[in-house]
Design brief:
The chain is α+β, with helices and mostly antiparallel strands. It has 6 helices and 5 strands, in the order αααααββαβββ. A hairpin with a 2-residue loop joins strand 1 and strand 2.
């Protein structure tokens, strides 16, 4: 339960997580990796497994409309747009994508705070994998390159995460 997870969190993160939420307001994503680590520990699973399971839960909650939209979009459309949408929804960084082959898209997510580099890669890959499967992609491969120091934002370093998505149909 949440009380057990809360005990595993740094006090300032626990206070933040318990605060009121406005689903349409900007939020700070920095506490999310800490929460996912604590939940993974309590569940006895690895960090990347926790993120995969959280994305499955989120997808299930999005309902029939989400699945219907993905079913009519091409895999290429999803691979181009979804990484950009993630940067908008998470309120940090910017993502660029481009077609690099018949069933290949490359891109880069820039402006990722150091604390969120690992979380962003795992969470984005799991979510994109599920969405592309719903759009008909098979034999999907999502590969992240080495994060590169990007710039500083408010005195903190940010990183660019290059990625390539390939699939079959």
């Amino acid at each position: 339960g949440f009380d057990a997870v809360r005990r595993d969190l740094p006090p300032d993160v626990a206070d933040y997580v318990e605060g009121p939420r406005d689903l349409f307001a900007k939020y700070d994503a920095i506490p999310l990796p800490f929460v996912n680590v604590a939940i993974a520990r309590r569940r006895g699973v690895r960090f990347d497994e926790q993120l995969r399971d959280a994305n499955h839960w989120s997808e299930a909650r999005n309902g029939a409309l989400y699945r219907a939209v993905l079913a009519v979009l091409s895999a290429q459309s999803v691979a181009l747009a979804l990484p950009r949408a993630a940067a908008i929804a998470q309120h940090f960084g910017r993502t660029t994508t481009r077609v690099t082959g018949q069933r290949s898209v490359s891109g880069s997510r820039s402006g990722v705070p150091r604390t969120l580099v690992r979380w962003t890669g795992f969470a984005s890959a799991h979510y994109l994998e599920r969405a592309l499967a719903r759009a008909g992609a098979r034999e999907l491969q999502i590969a992240y390159g080495v994060p590169a120091l990007d710039r500083e934002l408010s005195g903190e370093p940010t990183y660019a995460l290059p990625f390539t998505v390939t699939w079959q149909t």
